[in-house]
Structures are given as C-alpha cells and as structure tokens.
Amino acid sequence: MKYQVEVVQLKSPAKKESEDAYVLHEGAGVYGVFDGATPLVSFEDQDGHNGAYLAAHRFREHMQNMDGVDSLIRTVEEANIDLFEEMVSAGVDTSKGEERWSTCVAAIKLEHRHFHYAHLGDCMIMAGDKKGAVHVLTTDTVAGISARAKMKREKDREKGLQVKEEPYYDVLLHKLQYNRRLANIPGGYTVANGMPEVMTHLDSGSYPVEELEDLWLVSDGLFHPELSLEETCRRMKQEGIRSYISDLTSYLEKHRLPIDDRTVIHLRFS
Questions:
Q1: What is the pTM of this model?
Q2: Taking 80 as the threshold, does the pLDDT of residue 1 lie above it?
C-alpha cells in the first residue's frame, strides 16, 4: 500500500497554545487527530499546560508508542485509563464532569486491505473514493448537545427533579458545565475523559482501502458553517488545505465567529 501524507495544524488566535494534537506513526500505520476540550477550570501543570492539552497529548503519546501488532481499540482504552490516573494524581475532582480533562479522538490503523478506526466526539474521519465520492465514516456526537441538554432539563423538571430554571443556563459557563456532565451517557456526547463508559460509547470499525483515493482526519476547527463535510473535503483537495483554511478563516472573521485550533491529516493513496 503506497500513500502520501500531508498534515496541517494551526493554532487558534485566541489560545496561547494549540489544544489539538496529532500522531503520524508510519511504522505502525497509525494516524490520529485529537482535539482537547477547552477547560472550564484554571488548572495548569508545572509546564503551564491545561487539561485539554494534556488529554490530547496523552492520547498522542500512547498511539505514537504503538507497534504493528497493537490493537487500536486497546490503545484507546489504555490511554483513557492513563488519563484518569493522571487526573487523580493531579488532584482533579473526577466526580465533576466539568473538571475532567477530555479530548475528542479520530484515529486509524492501516492494514493491508483495510483500516481500523476509533472515534469519539467531533473529530471526524472521511474517506474519498476513486469515483470522487466522499464518505463520512463517523458521527459528530457533539453537534446539537446544547439542544439535547435543554430537553433533558425539561424532562427532569417534569419528573419532579430539582433543576435550575433556564435563565441560569443562559450564562455560558453554566451551560457548558451542564453539557460536560453529559459526557458518555445516553443522549449526551462522546469524549475521552477517563470514564469507563468511554469504551462503551466508542465508535469503531474497519473500512476497505482498495477503492480509496483519500483519507481525511480533521478536528472541528476545519468545519465550515455553510459547507457539508463532504464538500469541505472536496475543496481541500481541489484548492489545497492551506488555501481552504485561509478562506474559512476569512469567512469566520467576517461573520465574527470564533476561530478554533485547526488540524487535518490527509492520506492520499496511489
């Protein structure tokens, strides 16, 4: 199997360092993009890294250390356990979802005729075939989380449970704190944050490579508000990744929308 690899990573202008990480491990055929969730607490380690950075890089390190016979799924599990132990050692209150370090995951391991994939959150994996079609292999579980959270609060109030009234959640911090507590539960979203339930909700599978021309792994900073992921991949292929990112950045600036960390790995098969 012959292929070329291109990677682009750009930091959000609003952050001191990128909370995305990536792995290019050609020896084991392992590639991955990890998007740490920006923390809602002020913790930093002795090197000044926050929980988002630490979570994303913990997964990067585990996958960088894989060999050809290691299981991608087992490596995700080991990284998740290690992440939990690291949080405990740092004094993180892991009973609070909003304090856990967490990262989205989009990772693949190439074999002879197929690749295995593992996915959590809103990092995404897309495959482009030789006929020009783009296949989105993963589901963005973060999309719509605020609407689902509001629906859950309404249902809980109907059950007689004590839930603050909606004006409380009009405050962004309060809304985000509530959303983080929905990680890895039914109706919530998936993310690697040390919970055992991560493995229950992990999206994994395999896909043949024989008819593929491209494979894309991206963090959500590449998402365009007006384009589908399929169209995003086509434009990156036609215009070049950096040109696409430049156009996206101009659009976001024009509409005063936030610019996130942007990471993309493109594998092109020959």
A1: 0.96
A2: no
